[in-house]
Design the sequence.
């Protein structure tokens, strides 16, 4: 297997060492493939991204496991040498308000590709046009506050492309946007992925977004991956009760399906007092005595379909 | 027929733009000639992209900003004719719930005080009575009375939105305007708020206006939908007819943009390109610059709201759009929005 990115038993801890923000997750990603990370807020999706990008916030560190990249040269490279770019949820606050779009893009092009002066300017215009910004030349002089949220997210994507990434991490890239803009941005990401052959790691709490982009999806809960499967398989036959619950709380627009979304009872527990055994058992309809005692290991429930549950739904 | 609770007649709001050399002549029309009627206990969704004027419409309905033209009537009484004392009575019967619960709550006040505040501001009860009512209300929205002494930063996003809801409901208003109340929340928390709102509106007999850009959530919460584009209502009808057969290309595009759990739509072109374009607002149909079906007539003539099948649509070509096909047992797909 030529996995481009391999994450093995990753552990990320905060300043209070007893708390594991990420607790031993493993997954891999091929070049040109898209993996979706899905789960509620506070389950460690973003921290996984920061760990891969080597951009963990101060005080939080990787304390176990490994993250390796295979650049195709046979030797495993350091993450720093593999080109990773990241885009975030709120594009307007991620951009520096005192710099123009042009400055932002050309400085990145200089850093990553060594382009200067007019070369950098022309490349910046090309990138802006590629991400669907019209009148790109005059936009170079614009500041972030002069653009809409959707436009700023396009600028963020252009900026990410300037690094010619092999892996693009998109952390809730469309959560703050309108549905129409969301559809456009998701389509753009899909186009760029197939054009450049980069791998894409997309994070969202919305299974609809995952369904539009990801080849495979991993469901996270309290710092652990509880289920990983091809996206189709996960949406149609979720084995873990948490995955099932996430599918059930998605509202539908089908007029024949008037059932309101089914909420998941309770809330995500705080990391300071995680329930013993399987962390999901207090909210789980299938929980048994065994679930309170120990965390279930990963089992195969189908082709490429793994889940950590003592009572998985069987197809 | 009983008297409507709320009526908006030819409501128009123009914001004057002060910058620039030609300041005298420039103005942005946020809401244009909107007519809306809401019966007692009726729930309506106002749907559109950001910048479409839906929040301004909500503020106009509550009399938080004066209209440039037209009028709003609440129980037959116009906002313009209301005097100071009447306003206070009106405020007791209405409430506004906004998108970001953290900025709607005072970070220095504990939850109990904030929820009880409207009660003693309007002198409905004394402080002790207000506290009891607040405890009651918190339990109705699914929080425990023990949370009264907490502060907003100690709660999750979903809990905060419940607190805002409790504060809005404590005086038992007849009308609430919800402005994107769930957009900032996780899908799972959205589902919780949806089921809470459904049961509360049933139990309390609430009428509300639900403003959103997300057609997934709103259909479970309202009876009727009005789709707005650049200040105008372009389509309105009951939930079933809109979701079964939307007739305006903008409504259809909004429906097609919804991320469903259907993996077959991967790589399908987005239904509409670009963003709100105010250059076309002055003449003809404002949507024509983004509309794949625009014809010459759309540039010349403003389409007016007219009856088509079960809904009202403002589109010259409303009859041309076919009913969307049903997909394999799942969501109806609106790909390509092909035309007959």
Sequence:
């Amino acid at each position: 297997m030529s996995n481009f990115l391999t994450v093995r038993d990753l552990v990320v801890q905060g300043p209070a060492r007893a708390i594991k923000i990420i607790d031993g997750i493993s997954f891999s990603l091929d070049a040109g493939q898209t993996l979706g990370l899905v789960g509620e807020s506070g389950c460690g999706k973003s921290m996984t991204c920061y760990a891969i990008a080597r951009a963990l916030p101060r005080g939080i560190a990787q304390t176990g496991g490994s993250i390796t990249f295979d650049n195709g040269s046979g030797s495993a490279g350091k993450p720093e040498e593999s080109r990773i770019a990241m885009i975030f949820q709120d594009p307007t606050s991620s951009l520096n308000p005192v710099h123009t779009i042009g400055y932002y893009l050309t400085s990145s092009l200089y850093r990553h590709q060594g382009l200067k002066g007019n070369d950098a300017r022309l490349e910046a215009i090309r990138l802006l046009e590629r991400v669907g910004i019209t009148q790109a030349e005059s936009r170079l002089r614009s500041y972030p506050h002069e653009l809409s949220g959707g436009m700023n997210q396009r600028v963020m994507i252009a900026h990410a492309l300037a690094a010619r990434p092999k892996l693009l991490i998109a952390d809730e890239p469309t959560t703050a946007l309108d549905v129409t803009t969301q559809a456009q941005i998701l389509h753009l990401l899909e186009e760029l992925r197939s054009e450049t052959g980069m791998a894409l790691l997309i994070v969202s709490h919305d299974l609809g977004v995952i369904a539009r982009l990801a080849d495979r999806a991993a469901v996270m809960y309290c710092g652990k991956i509880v289920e990983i499967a091809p996206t189709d398989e996960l949406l149609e036959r979720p084995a873990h009760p948490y995955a099932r619950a996430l599918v059930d709380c998605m509202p539908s627009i089908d007029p024949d399906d008037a059932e309101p979304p089914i909420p998941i009872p309770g809330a995500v527990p705080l990391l300071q007092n995680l329930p013993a055994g399987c962390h999901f058992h207090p909210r789980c309809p299938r929980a048994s005595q065994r679930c309170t005692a120990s965390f279930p290991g990963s089992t195969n429930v189908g082709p490429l379909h793994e889940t950590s549950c003592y009572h998985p739904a069987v197809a | 027929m009983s008297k409507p609770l709320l009526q908006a007649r030819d409501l128009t709001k123009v914001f004057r733009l002060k910058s620039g050399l030609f300041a005298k002549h420039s103005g942005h029309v946020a809401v244009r000639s909107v007519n809306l009627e809401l019966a007692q206990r009726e729930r309506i969704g106002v749907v559109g992209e950001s910048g479409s004027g839906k929040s301004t419409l909500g503020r106009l309905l509550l009399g938080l900003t004066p209209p440039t033209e037209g009028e709003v009537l609440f129980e037959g009484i116009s906002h313009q004719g209301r005097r100071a004392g009447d306003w206070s009575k009106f405020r007791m019967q209405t409430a506004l719930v906004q998108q970001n619960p953290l900025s709607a709550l005072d970070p220095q006040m504990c939850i109990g005080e904030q929820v009880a505040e409207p009660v003693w501001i309007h002198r409905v009860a004394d402080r002790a009575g207000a506290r009891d009512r607040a405890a009651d209300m918190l339990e109705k929205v699914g929080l425990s009375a023990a949370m009264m002494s907490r502060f907003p930063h100690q709660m999750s996003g979903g809990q905060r939105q419940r607190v805002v809801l409790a504060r809005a409901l404590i005086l038992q208003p007849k009308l609430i305007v919800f402005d994107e109340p769930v957009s900032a929340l996780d899908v799972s928390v959205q589902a919780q708020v949806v089921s809470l709102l459904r049961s509360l509106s049933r139990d309390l007999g609430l009428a509300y206006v639900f403003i959103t850009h997300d057609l997934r959530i709103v259909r479970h919460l309202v009876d009727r939908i009005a789709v707005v584009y650049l200040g105008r209502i372009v389509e309105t009808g009951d939930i079933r007819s809109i979701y079964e057969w939307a007739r305006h290309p903008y409504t259809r595009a909004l429906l097609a943009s919804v991320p469903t759990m259907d993996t077959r739509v991967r790589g399908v072109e987005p239904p509409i390109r670009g963003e709100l374009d105010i250059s076309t607002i002055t003449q003809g149909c404002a949507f024509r610059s983004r509309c794949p079906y625009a014809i010459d007539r759309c540039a010349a003539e403003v389409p007016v709201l007219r009856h088509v099948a079960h809904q009202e649509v403002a589109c010259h070509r409303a009859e041309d759009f076919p009913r969307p096909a049903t997909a394999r047992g799942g969501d109806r797909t609106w790909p390509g929005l092909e035309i007959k």
